[in-house]
Amino acid sequence: MPNISNPILISHPKKFTWLRSYLPYLLFLIIMILKLRYFHDELNARDIDMSRTDYVIAAGSLLIVSFWVLWLPVRIRIFTLSLLNLLLTGIIFADLVYYRYFGDFITVPVLLQTGQVGSLGDSIRSLIYSSDLWFFIDLILLAIGGLLYVIHLYRKGRKNRSSLYSVQKQKTNQQVSLRSRFVSGVLALVLGTVLTVGPIQHSSKTWAAGLFEGNWWNMTLYNVTGLLAFHGYDVYRYNKERMNSQAPVSHEQLEETIAYFSKKQEEARKAIRAETFGKYKGKNVIIVQVEAFMNFVIGKEIGGEEITPHFNNLMKESLYFKNFYHQTGQGRTSDADFVTNISLHPLPTGSVFVRYPDHEYDALSSILGIEGYHTAAYHAYESSFWNRYMMYKNMGYDEFKNRNNYIMDEAVGWSLGDKSFFKQSVDYITEERLKNPAPFYSFMTTLTSHHPYGLPASLRELNTDSLGKSMMGNYLQSIHYVDAALGELVEQLKKEGLWDDTLFVVYGDHDNSIKEKADYETFLGTSLSDLEMHQIMNQVPLLMHLPDGDQAGIYLEPAGQIDIAPTVLHLLGISTEDNYLMGSDLLSTSKRMTVLRTGAFANSDLVYIPSEDRQFENGSCYELPAGKQTDIEACKPSYEKSKLELSISDQLITHNLIHKLRAKE
User: Fold this and answer.
1) Which candidate, 532, 597, 589, 530, places its Cα nearest to that of 561?
2) pLDDT-based confidence at 176, cuts 50/70/90?
3) Strand 620-623 to 606-609 pairing
4) Is pLDDT at 509 greater than 70 in this prediction?
5) How far is it, in rounded angstroms, from Cα 287 to Cα 503?
6) Half-sphere exposure (Cβ direction) of 164: Cα atoms closer than 13 Å
7) Per-residue confidence at 415, pLDDT binned at 50, 70, 90?
8) Strands, E, within 380-451: which ranges?
9) Calpha distance 110→91 (Å, rounded)
10) Residue 293, Cβ neighbours under 10 Å: how many?
11) Per-residue pLDDT tens for 203-221?
12) Residue 46 pLDDT
């Protein structure tokens, strides 16, 4: 006799089967989307909203993560969904706590370098808020419901429980066939892939073009992919990089690398005999990397005022390298940091800071640390930007002062204004000096002169009316402000008694992203050749002030950021014969060639500019100092050397060759 106590089972059996089969799964998706929304809101990320597209990607990512659950029988499915909920909740919440401290998300390298996570220490309690309880409310209710259900079954008795389970299992198997479970799982996977990949591909081809090649900040990746897809991409990215680094290096490539550095190390041994070697042993070192500081503004005026009066004045008692090139690639500011401190070339794609932060390098900071220096990096922005936090730990810095360590008392552009940044940084240096009188190395990275150069009207001091409302005028205003900040920095160092004991270096990190030739011709008041435009876009200033003001003058020999670390070490009397550095001592009289990531190069006689297709014969070769184009074959020998140098640098980085070569020593 049929049971008529539940008419729903009789009148709507299909509806009941669908609800029983898929309602828990739908609830799981809704709950997890709400948690991802809570996570996003708690980030308080500037200029990043969770749009409808982001909800679509979130839903798609959840379908991809969980589609396989639909292949399971209903009773097992509910239990599995509970476990998956617990797992994803743990991942999302761990990311949230980590972000509250580091301003970044947990990645595979972070998990492998547990020291970064462990450094939360006692602070972890302060990173968990009472409002976070809502994040776990479903799990709490589920746990209570599960406990009550277990108690109910226990009271029913083992026999009844077993009988009930057998009957329900039989009904479930009858109601939901294996075929329908398989089809629903496949459909969920297909739908999830479409919802996730479609919007991400659209973004990567439009407003986020080049993002996945550059990988410049995890937050921007998250802005395109959402959290779950970000972690999927992170695993893919990590495995790809590991495969590249673990790929075998041919015997020929290895011999080329060994031969190249044998020659460099022989040059380092000869440099020990130079008069300048060790002349400033034990002196402090301050290196300032200035955002978008370009060479064409040095010594120039607009509206009757000098654009860089403090820099111009400091040049009179310093070494100024007039033909100094930035050597950055897609990594931009991080590449300048890398090339300057590690004296290797950047990669052709992406940033070394992001792609290979755990490989072995001979960094200026780690070398000086071994020599007893207190080393610190200063940058008033998020520590995760360009993956600085992880990379700086690998580079051996004792401290990294970032946005969290500065008082935002001069909000300009992206972050803290450079004037306050310099003042607070020197305050940190002097505080450390009271505790530790050892010599120090301080690496400062400015930010105010960052594109698009939106300096407040109250800080604009130049008359740029002749340039109209162009970005070039805004750029000059920003550089004028930074120059004033540099002037205040020098005065503060003198006031604190540090100037006469410090080797002081200032250079530009890369170009200003203003590409139009007409803007430069208007400002300079003259037409520009292709060679002159190439030099404008690739040359940045380098100023080096020695403690006693010695060696002052203008140096015309081409040089690059890759030469800074070897020069500093030479002046401090620290031999680089056991290090893998590609740069040269800038005070050496030896001829050198400066190679750019694009394949361009410059030496005392020639400049080579590659074509867009990067075919050598389609490039341009110029004779110096006349600057006249000559036969392309004149550049062929130096071109082959530049290709070899870039190739060796790439191998050294991607295959972690420094570590492997040292292991063989």
Assistant:
1) 597
2) low
3) antiparallel
4) yes
5) 8
6) 10
7) confident
8) 399-401, 411-412, 415-416, 440-445
9) 14
10) 29
11) 888 888 877 765 556 788 8
12) 66
Helix 517-524 / helix 530-538 crossing angle, nearest 10 deg: 90
Beta strands per DSSP E along 251-315: 284-290, 301-302, 305-306
**Mutual angle of helices 178-205 and 52-66, in 10-degree steps:** 140
Q: What is the dihedral of CA 231, 233, 236, 241, to 10 degrees?
A: -100
Amino acid type, 127: L
Beta-bridge partners for 544: 319, 505
What residues pair up with 505 in beta bridges, in sequence order?
287, 544
Query: Quick check: 308 and 526 in contact, CB under 8 A?
Result: no
Query: Strand (E) positions, 277-326?
Result: 284-290, 301-302, 305-306, 319-321, 324-325
* Structural tokens at position 516: 């139009």
**3-class state of residue 467 by DSSP:** helix
Query: Which comes out higher in pLDDT, residue 115 or 357?
Result: 357
- Which tens digits make up the pLDDT trace of 520-535? 999 999 999 999 999 9
592 conformational bin, left if phi > 0, alpha if psi -120 to 50, beta if neither: beta
Residue 585's Cα: distance from chain center in Å?
A: 28
Distances (CA, A) of 410 to 187, 289, 455, 489: 54, 20, 12, 16
Cis before residue 2, ω within 30 degrees of 0? no
As a whole number, mean pLDDT of residues 101-123 equals 59
CA 663 to CA 610: how far, in whole Å?
38
**DSSP secondary structure string, 131-184?**
GGGGGGHHHHHHHHHHHHHHHHHHHH-HHHHHHHHHHHHHHHHHHS-HHHHHHH
* CA atoms of 380 and 425, how far apart (whole Å): 9
Q: Is 93 within 8 Å of 132 (Cβ atoms)?
A: yes
User: CB–CB of 660/363 below 8 Å?
Assistant: no
The residues facing 503 across adjacent strands are: 285
> What's the rounded Cα separation, in Å, for the pair 483 and 496?
20
* Residue labelled with tokens 């972890």: 124
pLDDT at residue 160 above 60?
A: no
**Residues 584 and 265: beta-carbon distance below 8 Å:** no
According to the 3-state scheme, what is the secondary structure of 523-590?
Answer: HHCCCCCHHHHHHHHHECCEEEECCCCCCCEEECCCEEHHHHHHHHHHHHCCCCCCCCCCCCCCCCCC
Provide the pLDDT confidence category of residue 118 given band limits of 50, 70 and 90.
very low
Q: How far is CA 168 from CA 8, 103, 156, 165, 173, in A?
A: 17, 49, 15, 5, 8
Residues making up the chain, counted from first to last: 665
pLDDT digits (tens, 9 = 90+) for 254-308: 899 999 999 988 888 888 888 999 999 999 999 999 999 999 999 999 999 999 9
Q: Does residue 561 contact residue 327 with C-beta atoms inside 8 Å? A: yes
- Per-residue 3-state assignment (H helix, E strand, C coil) for 181-210: HHHHHHHHHHHHHHHHHHHHHHHHHCCCCC
CB contact at 8 A, 553 and 586: no
Question: At how many degrees (to 10) do helices 137-156 and 74-102 cross?
Answer: 150
Tell whether pTM > 0.85: no
Check whether 495 has a pLDDT greater than 90.
Answer: yes
Beta strands 284-290 and 324-325, pairing class: unpaired
